[in-house]
Design a protein that fits this description.
It is built from 22 helices and no strands. The protein is mostly helical and 435 residues long.
């Protein structure tokens, strides 16, 4: 067991080195380097200058004033940066970074993201290594190697996901609970649609977890209200402007369009992981692919909710429940590739299954490994670029199947993994009920 733990830790260390090394390398050379952080940074900088970051003309003016810091940015990058779609709490969070010049600000952001994410992976490794050292080490290695995009583009999902994972560990271990509460609240203020489903588990769980969750909600509302009041004082129409920006970014041919128009740029489509990207290949109408996604996901989410309410608390069932909702929550609503780093929560759940052994443990390992690989940044980019070079047909059944496999592997493996973990969770819940 000591050698297995040592091997596992070595995989963790190598994974951390690859995560940081590849992320920094890409951040220094990529055309989209720090594009998401630029939006946060210049949005907060615009706000601190008492201008309106939700108005594209104001934000673009602040961004273009610092053109010397971004001489290679294309017109497409400028349009992305100028369309601010984050909550007021993100403006406030990024304000300390916006007070610094661009150079130290983006290096500090990259460092903070990397430290938070590595610490979160360590928490998951530490929990999983108790019962499945080599399996946990391998999964952590795969997740770390597939997460360079967090450092490259600087999306705040890296920080939000890491804080949520750390908070879940604190709550289930019943240690550093106040630190977990603050971490969870901050993650919700940054990415509520990503980390909110994890909070739902704690709200539906036993009395102690519900107390932690309600405390988190209270802290989130307190800080959120303060951020909204501060932003409202400078930008009274932020809400309507945010909605307008969200509609524009999700419009046909927009940055967040999951429809078939994304097939013209496979890498763009591959970065979105919701089921809408799959169903849009059958029918490009939003009413169709949205409804189809909801119909597929609704029964799975209902079963998960009922099981969570009825099941008594145990750490094993808790990790299975959290892992499953982390996967399922990616499917019905808009999510991008960097949001899938929340799947770090699969590691303790997989270790729970591995301790039971048998065919279920083996199926779970192969599915979880495939999920870590096919939602990873490098693999998704490679498949999408390969599809682009092969010029895959976009019409007919063969074309749809090829495009699904090459440019939409993430939602397919997420659906399979979510269904498996739901089955494992229900099965574990039934076996743990007193006769």
């Amino acid at each position: 067991m000591k050698q297995a733990r040592l091997d596992s830790f070595l995989l963790f260390v190598i994974g951390c080195a690859i995560f940081v090394g590849v992320g920094v390398l890409y951040a220094r050379s990529s055309l989209v380097s720090q594009v998401d952080f630029k939006c946060l940074y210049y949005g907060s900088r615009c706000f601190l200058q008492h201008s309106d970051p939700y108005r594209q003309s104001d934000l673009l003016r602040v961004y273009q004033a610092a053109a010397a810091d971004h001489p290679s940015d294309t017109a497409a990058i400028q349009r992305i940066v100028a369309l601010y779609v984050n909550l007021p709490s993100a403006l406030v969070f990024a304000a300390p970074f916006a007070m610094l010049p661009w150079g130290p600000a983006h290096w500090l952001w990259m460092s903070f993201t990397a430290v938070c994410f590595i610490f979160a992976t360590y928490m998951m490794w530490r929990d999983g290594v108790r019962t499945a050292p080599r399996i946990s080490g391998l999964l952590i290695f795969l997740f770390l190697c597939g997460s360079e995009l967090l450092v490259e583009v600087g999306n705040d999902a890296g920080i939000a996901v890491a804080l949520c994972v750390i908070a879940a560990w604190c709550f289930l271990e019943d240690r550093f609970v106040w630190a977990g509460t603050l971490s969870f609240a901050l993650s919700l203020l940054l990415k509520p649609h990503v980390t909110g489903p994890i909070l739902l588990y704690f709200l539906l769980s036993n009395q102690k977890n519900r107390k932690y969750a309600l405390r988190t909600v209270a802290v989130t509302l307190l800080f959120g209200a303060a951020a909204v009041l501060w932003v409202y004082h400078v930008v009274p129409h932020w809400s309507s402007e945010l909605h307008a920006n969200l509609r524009e970014i999700a419009a046909v041919n927009g940055v967040n369009d999951p429809g078939p128009a994304a097939m013209d740029t496979p890498a763009h489509g591959a970065r979105m992981v919701s089921l809408q990207t799959v169903f849009s290949l059958l029918n490009g109408e939003p009413h169709f692919y949205n409804l189809a996604s909801y119909i597929v996901c609704a029964p799975l989410l209902i079963i998960w909710t009922v099981t969570t309410i009825r099941t008594g608390f145990s750490k094993g069932s808790a990790w299975l429940a959290i892992a499953d909702i982390a996967v399922l929550s990616m499917l019905p609503l808009y999510h991008r590739q960097h949001d899938t780093r929340l799947l770090l929560l699969l590691v303790p759940a997989m270790a729970t299954l591995w301790a039971y052994g048998g065919i279920i443990a083996k199926i779970g390992f192969w599915l979880t490994s495939a999920c870590a690989l096919l939602t990873g940044d490098v693999v998704c980019e490679f498949l999408a670029e390969t599809a682009n070079r092969l010029r895959l047909p976009a019409h007919g059944l063969p074309g749809h199947l090829l495009n699904l496999g090459m440019t939409r592997p993430a939602p397919l493996i997420l659906l399979a993994t979510g269904a498996f973990y739901l089955w494992a969770y229900v099965r574990h819940a039934r076996q743990s009920q007193p006769v």
